[in-house]
Every structure is written in structure tokens, then in C-alpha cells.
Amino acid sequence: MELHDRLESVLSVAQESAKQVDTDAAFPADSVSALRSSGLLGLTLPEAVGGLGAGPHELVDVVSSLAGACGSTAMIYLMHVSAAMTVAAAPPPGLPQLLPGLASGETLGSLAFSEAGSRSHFWAPVSKSTSNGAGVHLAARKSWVTSAGHADVYVTSTLNADADVVDIFAIPSATRGVAVSGEWRGLGLRGNASNPMTFDVEVPTDHRIGAAGGGFDLMLQTVMPWFNLGNAAVSVGLSAAAVDASVRHTSVARLEHLEQSLSALPTIRAKLAKMSIDLGCTRAYVGQTAGRLAQPAEDTVLHVLGVKAAANDAALRITDSAMRVCGGAAFSEHLQVDRYFRDARAGSVMAPSADVLYDFYGKAITGQPLF
Ligand SMILES: Cc1cc2nc3c(=O)[nH]c(=O)nc-3n(C[C@H](O)[C@H](O)[C@H](O)COP(=O)(O)OP(=O)(O)OC[C@H]3O[C@@H](n4cnc5c(N)ncnc54)[C@H](O)[C@@H]3O)c2cc1C
């Protein structure tokens, strides 16, 4: 099946359910089920394990299209892809069926990195794992886990207390001691089920992803490039939906006494133009970054650091302008522009947050170490 057909089969479901998902703050079960059967959960995984073998450009297309339909579905999808790519980088020997399951859609994954203790500084888990016979005992309070209670496997970071290094484990949801530990109510991405979770589990050592102490490198070299690019694509999808809705609304909304549409007002037209140009610039940067991941170059790291911050902030500007040009019609939730506006607010606070990325980028171009 062509990628386009796989995507269409999910988009129609996601579009139809997005408003209800947002209103009810309900996990988009139908969209995720459509994603599972579409094969798209294996989009970027190698064909050898049942994936589609696609790359960063295709990821941007799929994620941004999903975000235009349903932001929550797009973020759930991105968390799965980020978890799957981490597993693919160093499949845990004790879970030989994990990667094929993530590729086929049987297994939905997510990342459990952020912690109550180290907040958005995901690279510095304060949860502890300690040696315990043939495995480790892992005790962690994770502050936000997208698809909490819905994912089949959680890619979970921890500080190896014996060696003071970061490890990442794949923890199947059925493991004793895995629990959703609080409520989730978000301003946007309300269907995400990004609840806090606790892990108080015994994990065999061969469920570790990568070598002992390899977690930090995996985070920087695998998770961050895919997550940052995909998160930027979510911002692009939400921005594009906001631009489209604004153009549509201001073109048809009439000022009858003046016999003109809202878009005939120079102020409105100029704002629409700025939104559209902002979107175009962001799309170009995201596309360029996808190219840098597909074919690494000297400035790939800078693109990885810059793309999420730039796209997140563009989405804040664009969706804010959309609320402005659509006026009360947007405020009263007729146009779903409010949903794009609220959903877009997640990107910049998701780790690595936009402000952290600006700081890292500044360090990188001035020759200072990031950590
Ligand atoms: C919708 C949603 C879904 C999420 N899903 C997941 C998930 O699936 N898995 C997961 O692990 N996490 C997830 N998170 C958590 C996310 O990645 C962040 O960890 C979380 O949003 C941080 O919130 P906080 O209040 O702890 O931020 P804080 O760390 O308290 O940050 C507060 C402010 O300080 C700024 N700041 C912090 N450090 C610096 C610095 N060094 N320089 C400059 N500014 C700084 C931040 O940018 C932010 O503006 C999710 C978050 C959201 C909103």
C-alpha cells in the first residue's frame, strides 16, 4: 500500500474524532487503532523487522498531516516513533519480539523520561535503579507519560545508582509495579493521556536498551534528533491548520454593511500574509533539518537543536494570530482555531523545551560545551 493511502485511512478517522477527543479529553482510541492497522507505527523502522523503512522526510509529512487533523493523535504517534527508534538503535536482547511488534502496530510505545525531580531536564533522571541479582530494581516517579495506561511498552530512563550513569530500559506495560499515578488535564493535546506514572519494578538486565551507561548517548544521538524533528512537524501541522482555517473564515465572513469580507480589510490581510510566510519559512527549515538527518552534515546538530525551538515558537505566533484574525468566531470555539491554539502551546514546554534549546544552540555556536 502507498504511504499516501495508509495516511488517508488514519486522517479520516482522526479528523472525525478530533473535536470530541478535545472536548472530552479522551484518548483517541479510534485514531490509534487506525494507526495500528495502517502500518504507520513502523514508518521509520527497517523493513527487515517489518517496518516501512522510510526516513525523516516521510516522518515530517506523516506527523504534520496528523497534527492538522488531531494534535493529540500526532503527539501519541510521535512518542511511539521516538520510543521505537530508541529500541531500534540497540534492541534489548531479552525482548526479541519488541521491535517487530513496534513495527507491525501490535505494540504501542511511549517515552517515560520526565521526572518529578528533574522536571524537563530529561537527561538527568533522579530515579534510581539498583542491581538486584540478574536484573535491577527500578523506582521512578515519571511526571508525564503520553499514552499512559494505553501504551504496551514504556521506554524508561533511570539513573543507575551503582555507577552514576543513565540507563534506558524497555518496560512492558504488564510488568508488576507499573502504574498510572495521577490525572491528566491539559490546556491542549487533551487526548494525550500524558499522566504521571510510577515504576516500582524488577527488570532483567537484558531489557536494557544499549550498553550499561549508554542512556545519555542514546538520548542525545537517537531520541533528540527524531523527537525534535517530529515535534517540529507537529508544530507545522497545527500552524498550517490555523492558517487554512483563518484564510477560509476571513474569506467567507462578511461585513454586509460594507459589502466586503473580513479578508478585504488590509490589517487582516497583512496578518494572514505574515502567518503564511512564517509557516513557509518554518516548513523550509523543518525540511532542511529532515535532509540533515537523512544525510548527516557538519551542522546537523545545530539543526536538531534549532528546529524544534523555531517551529514551536512559530506555532505560538501563528495560532495566536489566527485567534486574532478570526475574532469572536475563534474564541467561541466555532472554528476549532482555539484547539490549534491550545494544542500548539504544548510544543515549547515539552522537553527539550524551546528555551533550553535556545540555550544549547547559543552554547554550540559560541564553542561552549552543552553540558
Ligand atoms: C502534552 C505533553 C506531553 C508530554 N509527554 C511526555 C512524555 O510522553 N514523556 C516524557 O518523558 N515527558 C513528557 N512531557 C513532559 C515534558 O517533556 C516536560 O518535561 C514538561 O513539560 C516540563 O514541565 P515542567 O513544569 O517540569 O518544566 P520545568 O522544567 O519546570 O520548566 C519551566 C520553565 O523553565 C524553563 N527552563 C528549564 N530549564 C531551563 C534552562 N536550562 N534554560 C532555560 N530555561 C529553562 C523551561 O523552558 C520552562 O519554560 C509532556 C509534556 C506535555 C506538555
Summarize the structure.
The chain has 371 residues and is of the alpha+beta class. It has helices at residues 3-24, 29-38, 56-69, 71-89, 98-104, 215-252, 266-294, 300-331, 337-347, 354-365, and strands spanning 109-112, 128-132, 135-145, 153-160, 165-172, 178-180, 195-204, 254-255, 260-261.
Key features?
371 residues; alpha+beta; Butyryl-Coa Dehydrogenase, subunit A, domain 1; Butyryl-CoA Dehydrogenase, subunit A, domain 2; Butyryl-CoA Dehydrogenase, subunit A, domain 3; 3 domains; 7-stranded mixed β-sheet; 52% helix; globular; binds flavin-adenine dinucleotide
Provide structural commentary.
- There is one protein chain.
- This protein has 371 residues and is of the alpha+beta class.
- It has 3 domains: 3-104, Acyl-CoA dehydrogenase/oxidase, N-terminal domain (Butyryl-Coa Dehydrogenase, subunit A, domain 1, Orthogonal Bundle); 109-211, Butyryl-CoA Dehydrogenase, subunit A, domain 2, CATH 2.40.110.10; 216-365, Up-down Bundle (Butyryl-CoA Dehydrogenase, subunit A, domain 3), CATH 1.20.140.10.
- Helix content is 52%, strand content 14%.
- It is built from 10 helices and 9 strands.
- The protein has helices at residues 3-24, 29-38, 56-69, 71-89, 98-104, 215-252, 266-294, 300-331, 337-347, 354-365, and strands spanning 109-112, 128-132, 135-145, 153-160, 165-172, 178-180, 195-204, 254-255, 260-261.
- The strands form 2 sheets. Strands 1, 2, 3, 4, 5, 6 and 7 form a 7-stranded mixed beta sheet that branches. A two-stranded antiparallel ribbon has the order 8-9.
- Helix 3 (56-69) runs antiparallel to helix 4 (71-89).
- The longest helix is centred in the middle third of the chain and has 38 residues, at 215-252.
- The structure holds flavin-adenine dinucleotide.
- Flavin-adenine dinucleotide (FAD) binds at residues 79, 110-114, 119-120, 122, 144-146, 186, 189, 192, 194, 346, 349-351, 353, 355-356, 359.
